[in-house]
Amino acid sequence: MTLKTIPPSRPGVAEGSSKVWAGALAMRIHFYAAVLVGPFLLIAALSGALYALTPQLEKAIYANELSASTGGPAVPLAAQIDAARAHLGTNQMPAAVRPGTDGTTTRVMFIDPALGESETRAIFVDPGTAAVKGDMTAYGTSGSLPVHTWIGQLHRNLHLGETGRIYSELAASWLWVIALGGVILWVQRWKRKPRAKGNLYPDKTTKGRAGTASLHASAGIWLAAGFFFLSATGLTWSAFAGANVTNLRAAVGWSTPALTTDLNTRTLGTGAGHEEHTDHAEHTAAEHAEYIAGQQAVAPPEGFDAALAAARAEGIDGVKTEIKPPATDGKTWTVAEIDRSWPTQVDAVAIDPGTMAVSDKVLFSDYPFAAKLARWGIDAHMGVLFGLANQIILAAIALGLAAMIIWGYIMWIKRRPTLNRPALNPPGKPAAFGRAPNRGALRRTPPVAALALITATAAVGYFLPLLGISLLAFLLIDTTAGYLHHRRTAAANNL
After folding, report:
1. pLDDT tens digit string along 94-130?
2. What is the predicted pLDDT for the residue at 113?
3. What residue ranges do the domains of the chain occupy?
4. On the chain, which terminus has fewer CB atoms closer than 10 Å, C or N?
5. Count of Cβ atoms closer than 10 Å to residue 53 Cβ
6. 98: β partners
7. pTM of the prediction?
8. CA neighbor of 344 nearest in space, from 366, 329, 311
9. Cα–Cα distance for residue pair 193/127, rounded to 1 Å
10. Paired residues of 262 in beta bridges
11. What whole-number distance in Å separates Cα of residue 4 and Cα of residue 486?
C-alpha cells in the first residue's frame, strides 16, 4: 500500500504559500525549542525574578552592617582602614575601599587567599567613629553580599561552577528564538482573527486548550520585547557566546575604554586597553600574590585619602566611589565612580603614587555609543539602572516567562490524543503528552527562502555555539524519529 499525501494544513492554501511553510516552520521550531529547553528557561526565569528583588532583601538582612549608626563628619579613611586592619589583626593593606556616604558604612575590602575567585573580605566601618560594624565576604565589582551572591550564582550557574554556566547560556541562546517563533505565530493568528480579544488580552469566553492559547498569545506579545532584551544581555555573561560578543565588539571598536594603570604607558585621555565592567572581580589568583607582596611599600593608609582628594579635584564627584591602590611599583592608584543607576556615573582616573597627579582619565561621556548601550543593558539586566522600577519590571518579565512556559506545557498536554478521538489515539495506547506539529515544513519552503534560512541559521549557530550544537542535536533526533516512524507506517500499510 502507498502512503497517503498529507493535505495542506489549511484548505484552499497552496503548498508553496508562505502562509503554510512559514507558519508551520515557526510552529515546529517554537514547539520543539520550548518543550526541550523549557525546563532550563523556567529555572532561569524563577531564579532571575528572585535575583531582581535581592537588593531589598540584602538591605533588610544586613541593615546593621550597611548602615552607619552615627552622623557628623567622617574620620579620615586612613583611620577607618587602621580599624579594619586591627579587626583582622593584620598589616595588610586593603585591595579596595568604598567610602561610606549618606548614612552608609565604609567597605574596606581585603584579598584573602582562602576565598574563591572574585571574592574579597569586606570589613564594614562606621565612617563617623571608625567602629567596625561587620565582616563578610563580598563578590565581584558589585560587592554582592552572601545572600545576594548565593541567589546570583543560582541564576548564573546553579552553583555548579563553569559547568553550570552551560545551562544559563543554553537558556539565553534559545529564549530569543522561541520568542521570535511566538511573534510569527501571533502575527498569523492576528491575520486569521484581527481582533483584540484573544490577541491583545485573554478571551475569557473560551475554555480548555483554546483558552490557554489565548492567555499564552496575549501575554506573549506584550512580553516579547522583554524576552529579546533578557536573551541579548544575558548572553554577554555566557562562556562561549560571550567571548564571541567581546571579540566582535573589539573588532568594530565598540569595547569599553579602560584606564591605563601602568606608569610606563602614559596615555592621558586615550583609554588604552579595554575592560568590560561586569559583575566579576578584577584580581586573579596570580595578581593576589603579586599584590600582597608589593602593596606595603606603595599603598600606605594615608594614600587613600590623598587619592580620593586628587580624584575629586579632577571631577570625580560621584557619591559612590571605589579607591584601589597600586599593586606594585610602576602602577597607579585608581579612583572610579561605581553608581550604575541613571544617570550612569562610572568615570575613573588613574593617579601617579609619586606625585598624586592624574595620569589617565576615562569618562563615561567619551564611551562609544555601543559601549554605553552595553553598560546600560547589563545594568538594566541586573536591576540597578532605574532602581525599584527596574527591579519590578524585571521580576514581572521573569514571572511572565515562567507563566508562558507553564501555559505552553499545559497546551501540549491538552493537545494529546484522547479516547474520544480514536483516529489520533489507537485503542490501548493512551498518550501521556500531546502531538508535535507535523513534519515537512522545511520541504515546503521555497528554495531561495530555504537557502537563506539555512545560511542564517548556520551563521547564528556559529556565533552562538550552544544554540548551534543543540539545534543540530534536535534535528538529528527529529530526523531519526521521522525516519523510524515512516518505516513503521510503511510496514503497517504493506501488511
Report:
1. 999 999 988 999 999 999 999 988 899 999 999 999 9
2. 92
3. 18-51+159-238+387-493, 257-382
4. C
5. 17
6. 107
7. 0.83
8. 366
9. 65
10. 331
11. 12
Q: Report the C-alpha gap between 12 and 356 in whole angstroms.
A: 80
Residue 361's CB is within 10 A of a number of other CB atoms, namely: 21
Placement of cell 502512503 in the chain: 3
Closest by CA position to 94, among listed 120, 114, 66: 120
C-alpha cell recorded at residue 104: 552608609
Cell of 53: 528583588
According to DSSP, the residues that pair with 335 across neighbouring strands are: 323, 349
Peptide bond into 343 cis (omega under 30): yes
70, 474 contact by CB (below 8 A): no
Instruction: Note whether 470 and 461 are within 8 A (CB).
Output: no
Cα separation, 378 vs 370, in Å, equals: 12
Helix (H) or strand (E) holding 362: strand 358-362
Which pairs from 338-342 meet CB under 8 Å and 24+ separation?
A: 338/98, 338/141, 340/375, 340/379, 340/382, 340/384, 340/385, 341/379, 341/384, 341/385, 341/386, 341/387, 342/385, 342/386
Question: pLDDT tens-digit profile of 171-191?
Answer: 999 999 999 999 999 999 999
How many Å apart are CA 166 and CA 171, to the nearest integer? 9
Cell numbers found for residue 157: 550557574
Q: What average pLDDT does the segment 238-262 reach?
A: 90
Half-sphere exposure for 301 (CA within 13 Å, toward CB): 15
Residue 6's closest CA among 438, 447, 405? 438
Average pLDDT on 385-411 reads 95
Residue type, 481: A
Place of cell 501488511: 495
Q: DSSP character for 201?
A: B
